[in-house]
Amino acid sequence: MAEGKCITKIEQQESTETMIGARILLECLRKEGVDEIFGYPGGVVLHIYDELYNCDYIKHYLVRHEQAAVHAAEGYARATGKVGVALTTSGPGATNAITGIANAYLDGYPIVVITGQVSVDLIGNDAFQEADIVGITRSCCKHNYLVKDVKDLPRIIKEAFHIAKTGKPGPVVIDLPKNVIVQKAKFKYPEKLELPGYNPTYNGHPRQILNALKLLYEAKRPVIISGGGVVASGANKELTEFAKYLHIPVANTLMGIGTFPADDKLSLGMLGMHGNYWANYAVSNCDVLFAVGTRFNDRITGSLKKFCSDAKVIHIDIDPCSISKNVNVDIPIVGDAKNVLTQMLAQAQKREHEINVDLKDKWFAQIDEWKQKRAMPVVNSDKIAPQTVIQKIYEYTKDIDPIVCTEVGQHQMWTAQLYKFNKPRQFITSGGLGTMGFGFPAAVGAAVAMKDKVVLNIAGDGSIQMNIQELMTCVDYNLNIKVFIINNGYLGMVRQWQEKIYNKHYSQTQISSPDYVKLAEAYGAIGIRVQKEEEIVPAIKKAIEHKGPVFVDFIVEPFEMVYPWVLAGDPINKVLLSNDVVDEP
Question: Which entry of 273, 466, 493, 561 is annotated as an active-site residue?
């Protein structure tokens, strides 16, 4: 069989045909169900691209920067739950991918990143476009491989996909030297895996489950925190059923948005630094905290010494290293959130405990009282309030069920606060790493994955310029992405800190922008500018009705602030509601 031809299904199952490493790579990807990848070619990986030239079972999306390829792979993974794949060349191509790898690692999403490398005999000789990618990525990926023999490639690919999507999901890096890419071997994909020492725990310990249920039934003021692990395990249905069965209010982390319906009466919305006042107070005053799939990072805990200091803590997480890492836990349950919640619900329904409705009603009455205290607009201006833009985007698009991506900054927090998400994988944003420039290429991945969906990218004028070149990718593939730029002329979140903490020393945070309308048109897309409130809805309507990429530039009030706000280091119940109003116990 010629090397450039695809293998039929029968041949794929039984083939021991000799082929080069590049072809073996593609056949391995097909075995893993991969039909779309994101990448950028370069000298070392040209044999792979030559094989892609005649390949009809994998569609390659050419991005304009390697960082964008990895973010797009993550956007694809977030939208689908499948493993996203990115391909880069060696040296700068691989180092450009590092930010994307680190982003996927901190937020826990499954991607496989394949990087080119110089030939094995040149490694360590400072060869042209050599970089120690295995060393560089060691701290920011779940696992990595340097392939030294083409015979190992099928096993490594199978292991990489398994590791990326099991346990706590995350990125796996495969560094592929040039000589391995052209080496020949017989292709046979392994049927079984042997990974000694890698055995994630999926089911919770029965005794710990009973202990947790006992504590929850006795609780007077319980709260559930739902994190990104609920998304990863697909446990939103089980979480919702459990919360409603036991009548427990649910707060979510930024990564957990959509895991519990935002419009449900039990929903507290997002907690943390810019979370809802009542969510922060409920968590701070609870007597039992039930955390599911969250790392308890500093953005949701504030001062660790004062976080839930009087509460008993139950924590479910598939990663045992995440339990008691930041917050001391009374009842740890290692396991997959979906499995453990299923176990807990089954036990709860068996035991027929009575729920003290009077106690719960008092708790909800207190929460309702806290809900009366809300953040207040900061600036009385004749310019458009950015919150108004986000609110109108939500009102106009909520019924079309879009995927909503964001960059990082004020617009991200306003979106998290104001757009009501009722299901997971609808909100795609960078949490742990806080990567400016993430949202646009992530939207590319989401649009490729979900071709029947409208994809929104809500951006700031600072973040959008980080990966703005991907507009050409959108135009080339006619991706149905609407970029809504909240243009305030500043790096808004940094400026906000400078105003409050650094005596209004706006050092290097005022940022100029191109004419986004002309820029969009130069790329072959549609551009719209909005400067008055009455123009907001017509512009959104025009953008949504156009089948293809659109930039909408909303000129908004530059000095608006994101509230509520918990200053770094403060407890989460010390909440700023405006410039002048601080509410604390």
Answer: 493
